[in-house]
Design brief:
single chain, about 240 residues, alpha+beta, five-stranded antiparallel β-sheet, four-stranded mixed β-sheet, globular
Length: about 240
């Protein structure tokens, strides 16, 4: 009897999980999953974009910055690294990345998406031999559901925390790279949206982030992670 009850419970849990997945898919009307293709989105859609990591000069061709999707950059042959994400449109998201990745391939990062518009952010420095910047804010700007621009925003160093934190150029929180260890410091990227979706509805998550700029989602995440992992004997973060 107990075995049957366990099996029934497991089946109910599986059915509920499948229903939640189907509901999430049903809300997502965007069938474009490549960061190198164009998409027209509405609120609650998933939107795929990429982060490319390499040397700053590798993102330019004949003194012009190109999208990492452009084959003229030949980033693959230059050992660049790529991370792809699919956040929900107009939801504030927190992305985390191992800081050893950008340091190993040149230390700079570009956000990008699309083919015709080929939107890309300006390269930002993530890490070098001296410091690793641990907190970024990326805004995706849309017009009638089409991505027009990606840009990095900085709110100064008010949210820097920890005894090892340093402020670079009075705008970026960083940690000495020597204190990051062999696995590197984790990077936190707060993601927000602005502009309008394909139904001309305003995307407001950027305004929410700007109103809360004195707080760091990554700092809150780090504090929560440390409090949880510190209370579990033998727990090793990342494993």
């Amino acid at each position: 009897m107990r075995i049957r009850m366990n099996m029934v419970t497991e089946m109910i849990v599986m059915i509920m999980a499948m229903r939640m997945m189907m509901a999430a898919i049903a809300d997502d009307t965007n069938g474009v999953f490549s960061p190198c293709e164009d998409a027209k989105v509405q609120k609650s859609d998933g939107f795929t974009f990429g982060l490319a990591f390499s040397k700053k000069e590798f993102f330019f061709f004949d003194n012009m910055q190109l999208s990492p999707c452009d084959s003229r950059l030949a980033l693959a042959s230059k050992m660049a690294k790529l991370a792809v994400f699919r956040p929900k449109v107009d939801e504030i998201s927190l992305l985390t990345i191992n800081g050893s990745i950008p340091l190993a391939v040149g230390g700079s990062m570009v956000a990008f998406a699309g083919r015709k518009y080929a939107a890309r952010s300006f390269p930002v420095t993530v890490a070098d031999e001296q410091n690793t910047i641990t907190s970024f804010t990326l805004v995706l700007e849309f017009q009638e559901g089409t991505l027009q621009n990606l840009y990095w925003k900085s709110f100064g160093c008010d949210s820097c925390s920890g005894s090892s934190a340093v402020c670079l150029n009075k705008q970026d929180c960083a940690i000495p790279t020597s204190k990051c260890g062999s696995t590197g410091c984790s990077l936190g990227i707060q993601l927000a949206f602005s502009g309008t979706d394909k139904n001309l509805e305003a995307l407001n998550s950027w305004y929410e982030v700007s109103n809360l700029r004195q707080y760091s989602l990554y700092g809150l995440y780090s504090d929560l992670r440390d409090s949880v992992t510190g209370s579990i004997p033998g727990f090793i973060p990342g494993q």
